[in-house]
Amino acid sequence: MSVNPLVQPFYDPVSSTVSYVVHAGAGSACAVIDPVLDFDPRAGRTSRLQAERILDFIAAHSLVLAWILETHVHADHLTAACVLKSRAGGRVAIGAGVVAVQRVFGELFNVAPGFPSDGSQFDHLFIDDETFAIGDLASRVLATPGHTPDGVTYLVGDAAFVGDTMFMPDGGTARCDFPGGDARLLYRSLRRILDLPTATRLFTAFVALRNERDAALPPPALLLPAVQVNMRAGAVPPPEANGVSYLKIPIDRW
Ligand SMILES: [Fe+2]
Question: Ligand 1 centre from 129 Cα, in Å?
Answer without folding.
Answer: 21
